[in-house]
Design a protein that fits this description.
There is one protein chain. It is built from 10 helices and no strands. It is mainly alpha-helical and 193 residues long.
Length: 193
Amino acid sequence: MARLKAPQRKEQLLGVATRVFAKYGYDATTTASIASAAGVTEPILYRHFGSKQELFVAIARAVSARTLRHWKELISDIDDPAEQLREIAGQFDDHLHELGDAYRVIHSALTTTRDRKVLNVLREHYRQIEAFFRAIVVSGQKKGVFRSVEVKTVCWHLINTGLGYAVVTQNLAPFETFDAKSAIEFVIRGLKA
C-alpha cells in the first residue's frame, strides 16, 4: 500500500477497523487482524492508535459526532419540536444505511463486551443522544407543544425505539419490522399537550 501521510493513514485505519469490528465484533477483533486488513504492520497501526480500545473509542466518538451533526442539520430550519422528531424519524433509515458498519460496531460492543473503556465511551454516546432529545422535548414543553412529563423517560423511549429498530433491521434484513416513523409518531401523540 502506498505511503500515506499521518492524517490519511489514521483515517484509513479507522475505516478498516470499522469494517473489521463490524464483521467480527469488538471482542473477537485483534489489532493484528485490523493491521492485516489495512495492509500495514501492527507497529504502523500502533503509531496512530495505542490499542484496540483507542480505535473503538475513535469510531464511537466519530459516529456520535456525525449523528448529532446530521440531526442538527436536519432540524435546523424546523421550529416545531414535534416536527423535528418526525424529520429525524423520517431520515432514520438513510442515516442507518450511511453509518451501517459504525452502528454495527457500537451495537455489537453494547451487547457483548465488558471492557470498561469501551462501555464508558458507549455511555458517553448515549448521554449525548439523550441530551439532544432532552433539548427537543424541553423546548416542546416550553412552547406548549408537549405536556409535562418525565423528560428522561421520553428521551430513553426514543433512544430505545431507535436502538431496537436499528439492531433488528441491520442484523435480520430483510425482515419485516415496525416502521420507525410510526413508532416515533406514537411517542409524539403521547407527548402532545
